[in-house]
Design a protein that fits this description.
The chain has 640 residues and is an alpha+beta fold. Helices cover 60% and strands 8% of the residues. It folds into three domains: 163 residues, no CATH class; 105 residues, Alpha-Beta Plaits, CATH 3.30.70; 304 residues, no CATH class.
């Protein structure tokens, strides 16, 4: 990434900005102070305001009109052409009238529905509805979904209200206006619900029929308004959508041009660009300006923005790096490491063919459902919509794609452990994770994994420090690496009950690791002083922390084993016990499956974020945001 400066003649400014916009390779930055004495900021305010006004108008139209398919792509020769065409489309008054009518009709429909809800319980009563509300009394329909209503208790209120039963078993309470609060308090204490009867007139059945007729009229009027919306949309939506995109692009280009500094003859722009793009940009600008464009690099101490660059299939894991912190442009991007290690940790912690298969099918369904939402789904739409609303489509799609390789590794590990929802279905078992031999081997392997990951982190830390010219940090990371290996080998000697000797001549295999650890402590003490010495115990905990892989695996395997044993032990005890055992089996397996999805994911990410990244990763990078807008309905000026 380089910071570059582009200088050209003022007459080519529009062409230069357009090329940079369509190439989407430059992150614009304020022009350096050394040019301020020669140039001044470009003033395009009036043109920006004019374009923005038309853009906002078109956006408001799109927000009201029903969506229509866009079947064309159009090329505009200039901003003026787009402005003239946008000016010719004036639907403001027509849409305002339609919107006001729609609002009024919807208000009427809501009022009619409220009156219908109030009137329906009163149908069958031979009364005039006007008796329920006078200047002195108010009436309420009393309902209770959980208990029967006690009319005698209502009559005992201090105001002695009138209590009249309705044909459907509810009650109408008429009470003096001054006593409404007493009724509300009583209803709250009893758990009753009150529905106020508005001012109505006539027989309940006849009044209800009138409401039905009015509702039909209002709905027909609303349908006509929707038809008018649809007619306008069919005529204008495609034009407006194309124009809106073009004006959005033009406003973006104008705002970019405003950031350039200029004189009456020339202008200058600055920004960040990938080194590999500079040659292509220079060639395109030279061709557009007839060689009247100069591109040069700007020396600066600023930290450049970060543009992650990974193979397409691994870009999904960039989400986890961004979630933690972007790397600065000059340091190592750990995306590929995360992409290989996280699925391995996840699969090792699940370690069951059955759970892995369910997670794989779930992940494949999730990816397909998000990419093709119109497909049939056994999951209720409300649940899937709620999940999308809470998490968003992007994170859910990332989760699905990451779970696919993770679940495949879980199936492979489950094959090694001979586990299928906790049952052993294969005629052989390569390694049993819950016998003493298997547990010991797994703990040992997890320790080796911890040592390898911590060592790899320190090696990356050394390389990072060297690339930044920070030799003391490189040596310090080397000291930590020596300490890690010295402690690990000495610890293994203790575990295997090997006599520890400090004589490097007679017992070099036990003495050298001790001296390596001591040398590591000395290096850390010299280069990191007290802060480093305080963190020495954390090094051991970071290595041992990887044994949580085995802990989570064993928790899942043992839970499945216990649930399965309960089920199998009840098979010969009669139907009731079989049903009870089946319920325990199903609920236990569902619970274990939920743990198998969430816990390995959380702990796998934690092992990478905390125990691994802390050895080399700095982060706090800024995302590279190239100037430009994605075109969907328009074509660049140089494209037919």
């Amino acid at each position: 990434m380089e910071k570059i400066r582009i200088i050209s003649l003022i007459k080519y400014r529009d062409q230069v900005v357009t090329i940079l916009h369509d190439m989407r390779v430059l992150q614009l930055e304020p022009v350096s102070k050394d040019l301020l004495q020669y140039m001044k900021a470009s003033d395009l305010t009036s043109l920006v305001e004019r374009a923005n006004a038309e853009l906002q108008k078109l956006k408001s139209y799109l927000g009201v009109l029903p969506k229509q398919p866009i079947t064309v792509k159009k090329k505009f020769r200039s901003l003026e052409e787009a402005l003239v065409e946008a000016k010719s489309i004036d639907l403001t008054d027509r849409l305002r009238v339609l919107k006001e009518s729609e609002t009024d009709i919807n208000t009427d429909i809501k009022d009619i529905h409220n009156r219908m809800e109030t009137t329906q319980p009163l149908i069958g009563m031979d009364i005039d509805l006007s008796i329920f509300n006078t200047s002195f009394t108010k009436s309420y329909i009393v309902t209770s979904p959980l208990q029967d209503i006690n009319p005698d208790a209502l009559k005992q209120l201090p105001s002695s209200p009138s209590v009249v039963p309705t044909p459907n078993g509810q009650y109408v309470v008429s009470i003096p206006v001054m006593a409404e609060k007493d009724l509300a308090k009583f209803a709250n204490e009893m758990g009753y619900q009150l529905m106020h009867i508005p001012e109505l007139k006539g027989n309940p059945a006849q009044y209800y029929e009138g409401l039905v007729s009015s509702l039909k009229d209002r709905e027909e009027a609303l349908s006509k308004i929707n038809e008018e919306y649809l007619t306008l949309s069919k005529e204008y939506y495609e034009k407006i959508a194309v124009l809106e995109e073009q004006l959005r692009i033009e406003v973006s280009k104008l705002e970019a041009a405003q950031r350039a500094f200029s004189t009456s003859e020339a202008f200058a722009m600055e920004g960040w660009m990938k080194v590999k793009d500079i040659g292509k940009v220079s060639s395109n600008l030279d061709r557009a300006t007839g060689g009247s464009c100069l591109i040069s690099t700007v020396k600066t101490d600023e930290e450049p923005p970060t543009a992650l660059s990974n193979w397409k299939r691994f870009r999904v894991f960039e989400f986890f790096i961004r979630f933690y912190s972007l790397p600065v442009e000059s340091e190592f991007d750990p995306t590929m490491i995360f992409a290989f290690i996280f699925p391995f940790f996840f699969g090792l912690m699940v370690g069951d063919m059955g759970y892995g298969l369910v997670i794989l099918l779930f992940a494949l369904w999730m990816v397909r459902k998000i990419n093709h939402p119109e497909t049939f789904s056994i999951v209720p739409r409300r649940i899937s919509s709620f999940a999308v609303k809470i998490l968003g489509k992007g994170p859910l799609l990332v989760l699905g794609k990451v779970l696919i390789p993770s679940s495949i590794i879980a199936i492979i590990v489950g094959f090694i452990f001979n586990g299928f929802f906790g049952f052993q279905i294969l005629p052989f078992t390569i390694l049993n994770p819950i016998d003493s031999y298997g547990i010991a081997k797994l703990l040992l392997v997890s320790g080796y994994i911890g040592l390898a990951m911590v060592s790899f982190g320190f090696i990356l830390g050394i390389l990072n420090a060297i690339s930044h010219g920070e030799d003391h940090k490189a040596i310090s990371s080397g000291g930590w690496l020596l300490l890690a290996w010295g402690v690990a080998i000495t610890g293994l000697d203790f575990l295997h009950k090997v006599p520890i000797s400090l004589d490097p001549v007679t017992s070099p295999l036990t003495a050298i690791p001790v001296y390596v650890a001591i040398l590591g402590i000395i290096v850390v003490a010299v280069f990191e002083k007290g802060r480093g010495m305080i963190e020495v115990p954390s090094l051991i905990s970071h290595i041992l922390s990887y044994t949580r892989i085995v802990g989570i695996l064993l928790a899942s395997v043992i839970l499945a084993y216990v649930v399965n044993r309960i089920f199998l032990s009840n098979l010969d005890k009669g139907p009731i016990f079989i049903i009870l055992g089946g319920v325990i089996l199903i609920m236990g397996q569902i619970f274990n499956l939920a743990i198998a999805i969430f816990e390995p994911g959380i702990q796998g990410a934690r092992l990478l974020y905390v125990e691994f990244f802390s050895k080399f990763y700095r982060g706090n990078g800024k995302q590279f945001h190239p100037f430009g807008t994605e075109r969907r309905y328009t074509l660049p000026e140089d494209q037919k």
